[in-house]
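Case study 2.
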Amino acid sequence: MLACRTLERDTILVLRRHIIEMRWQALALCCLTAIPPWAVAQSSEESPPSATEKWNLFEDETFAPLTLGAGAFNAAVSQAANSTPKYGRGFWPAYPERFGSAAADIASQNFFGDFLLASAFHEDSRYTRQGPEHKLWARVGYAISRSVITHSDAGETTFNASNVLGTAMSAALSNAYYPPASRTASAATINWATSVAGSGFAHLLPEFWPDFHAWMKRHLR
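Prediction:
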């Protein structure tokens, strides 16, 4: 009986720690996994990007200055929470190692999701905005759902395999450079889950930023 209670307590503690890590990592992804203008389609009727244009999208997203800021912020959140990847609490060399891992995570997610799998599955990884003619919560739900739903190159609504599988491939690849303590199935699963969730919440920025920008222009003249 005592052994069962101890096992139950340890399991709860592990789950609680994983939930906290997911919350921190999701916060980092939501704050700084921003989508640049060239990754947003103004209408679902736009011509789908070619394989070359998908490669260019990957390059533009990955090598933009924002990527360095996202990597630095994600590393800082991981450092503060001592979450995956577990390089330790000391600033040196833990923080630079976390920064390198965060930048590699972003680059691999962009490569697999925006180029390789988007080309293989003929999917358009760009975000298509709904706009203010739709209701607020419908737009919120739509934006978040785009992490698992997208348009094919033919313009049809389809499962977002390039994002869901691309983030899974990125999480698996992270085992090549994460420290041994973070090379576990649970760590890879959390990495994948927070990446998929973060990509959905990140769509709120291109969905609502034009509205906010227009409001600012009207009220700050």
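The two ends are 70 Å apart (CA to CA).
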